[in-house]
């Protein structure tokens, strides 16, 4: 196996625990890896604003770390504070998606300039894993947004968003996601990023494509990368990396594709795997 020179990891369900924090053991393992000269890359479906605090906590700016946001449509260099890559939806695509979504019982969301634009800031809570989830509060806290209501998101969007996010009841999304993606399945990436999240990004955008670009920029071969993830939007980077690691709480397809299944995100799964592969 090639020497590991880069660690790329998803955030929710992977790097952070169920309380959305990096546990001391996982943080210690990642800081130790950086001190050994291994680059860290945080790769999330979240916007860049939603992962900056984690980058600061891990000191990525001082260790040549990078951020992959919007499921791969934007790459940010923490050291230079530069956007290295950005691929967004066109205005026309965004408007058509948002018009199409009007027929479904979902909550569409579009972020811009620190605001999450929604139709209803007080949308009813969702039933997720036997609990009620206030998805609006969950999203704006996770992304570090202010929230703003719009009467018509399709009419509002006159800019190129990196993605369009929808939230809904998990059982309902399973029933309707094929109809939600049908007009766009050959034009856009349409995917679940959680049981209650379904989103749209530009075609050809995913975490593996972002990883390929980072590897070229850093002269690191994908065989020298270890990737961690749990959800379907992590699958491509787990397949591309020389060592693909799935969290025990991961989706079945992710578990099947991984080279190794580690402990869950609530059991310091990243630290457990790094102890195996780096020592």
Q: Any descriptors?
A:
single chain, 279 residues, Hypothetical Protein, Haloacid Dehalogenase-like Hydrolase, Chain: A, domain 2, eight-stranded mixed beta sheet, six-stranded mixed beta sheet, 11 helices, 33% helix, globular
Query: Can you tell me the overall shape?
Result: globular
Helical percentage: 25-40%
Main pleated sheet: 8 strands, mixed
Give the class-level CATH name of the largest domain: Alpha Beta
User: Order of strands side by side in the largest beta sheet?
Assistant: 5-4-3-2-1-14-15-16
The CATH topology assignment of the largest domain is Rossmann fold
CATH architecture of the largest domain: 3-Layer(aba) Sandwich
The stretches of 5 or more residues where confidence is low (pLDDT under 50) are none
Quick one: how many beta strands? 16
Provide the succession of SSEs. EHHEHEEEHEEEEHEHEHEEHEHEHEH
- Using the CA coordinates, give the radius of gyration: 18 Å
Number of helices: 11
Which SSEs are present, and which pair or pack?
Blueprint: E1 6-9, H1 11-15, H2 24-35, E2 39-43, H3 52-58, E3 66-69, E4 74-77, E5 82-86, H4 91-100, E6 107-112, E7 115-118, E8 126-128, E9 131-133, H5 135-143, E10 146-149, H6 153-156, E11 164-167, H7 170-181, E12 188-194, E13 197-202, H8 207-218, E14 225-229, H9 235-240, E15 243-246, H10 252-257, E16 260-261, H11 269-278
Parallel strand pairs: 1-2, 1-14, 2-3, 7-10, 14-15, 15-16
Antiparallel strand pairs: 3-4, 4-5, 6-7, 6-11, 8-9, 11-13, 12-13
Helix pairs in contact: 2-11
């Amino acid at each position: 196996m090639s020497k590991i020179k880069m660690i790329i990891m998803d955030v929710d369900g992977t790097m952070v625990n169920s309380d959305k924090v990096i546990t001391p053991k996982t943080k210690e393992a990642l800081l130790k890896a950086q001190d050994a000269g291994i680059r860290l890359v945080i790769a999330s479906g979240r916007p860049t604003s939603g992962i900056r605090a984690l980058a600061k906590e891990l000191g990525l700016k001082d260790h040549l770390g990078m951020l992959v946001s919007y499921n791969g449509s934007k790459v940010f260099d923490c050291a230079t504070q530069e956007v290295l890559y950005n691929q967004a939806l066109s205005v026309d695509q965004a408007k058509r998606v948002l018009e199409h979504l009007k027929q479904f019982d979902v909550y569409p969301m579009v972020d811009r300039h620190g605001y999450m634009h929604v139709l209803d800031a007080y949308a009813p809570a969702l039933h997720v894993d036997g609990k009620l989830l206030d998805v609006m509060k969950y999203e704006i806290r996770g992304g570090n947004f202010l929230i703003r209501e719009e009467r018509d998101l399709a009419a509002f969007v006159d800019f190129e968003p990196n993605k369009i996010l929808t939230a809904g009841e998990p059982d309902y999304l399973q029933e309707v996601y094929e109809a939600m993606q049908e007009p766009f399945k050959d034009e856009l990436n349409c995917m679940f990023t959680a049981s209650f999240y379904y989103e749209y990004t530009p075609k050809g955008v995913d975490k593996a494509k972002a990883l390929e670009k980072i590897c070229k920029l850093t002269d690191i071969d994908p065989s020298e990368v270890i990737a961690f993830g749990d959800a379907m939007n992590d699958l491509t980077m787990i397949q591309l990396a020389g060592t693909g690691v799935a969290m025990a709480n991961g989706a079945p397809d992710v578990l099947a594709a991984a080279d190794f299944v580690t402990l869950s995100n609530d059991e310091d799964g990243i630290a457990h795997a790094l102890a195996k592969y780096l020592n």
